[in-house]
Amino acid sequence: MMKTNKRSPKKYANENAIQTIKILEALEGANFEPVSINTICERVGTIIEIDKALTWDKARRILLTLQLLGWVIGNEKNEWMLGAKILRFSNRSHEILIENSQR
Fold first, then answer.
1. CA–CA distances in Å: residue 20 to residues 60, 64, 82, 96
2. pLDDT digit string (tens) for 37-82?
3. I need a surface site. Which of 1, 24, 71, 90 has the fewest CB within 10 A?
4. Angle (nearest 5°) at CA 92 between 23 and 18
5. Model's pTM, two decimal places?
6. Considering the domain boundaries, does residue 9 fall inside one?
7. Which domain holds residue 34?
C-alpha cells in the first residue's frame, strides 16, 4: 500500500520543472505560432505555485535545453514553437488513452 503524504505539494515543488512546463504551455498560444521569449515570459507571468516571475534569461536557458532535446524549435528571428518530439509524445499518449478506454 502506498503511503500518502499529507504535507503541501508546494513544499516539494521544483521551480525549474514548473517553469519548464509553463513555458511549454505558453508556446501553445492561439495557433501554435512562433513566439518571442518576451511573449513567453508575459504568458507565463508570475507562477502561483512558486511565487516567482520567469526572467528572460531563465526562459532562454530553458528553451535552449528543450531545443537540445527536440521539444522546441527556435528560428532565425529568435522565436520559438513546439517541436516534433512533443507532438510524437502527445500523439502516442492519445493513442494509449484510446486503447485503454476501449478495454
1. 11, 11, 13, 24
2. 999 999 998 777 777 888 999 999 999 999 999 999 999 999 999 9
3. 1
4. 20
5. 0.77
6. no
7. 15-101
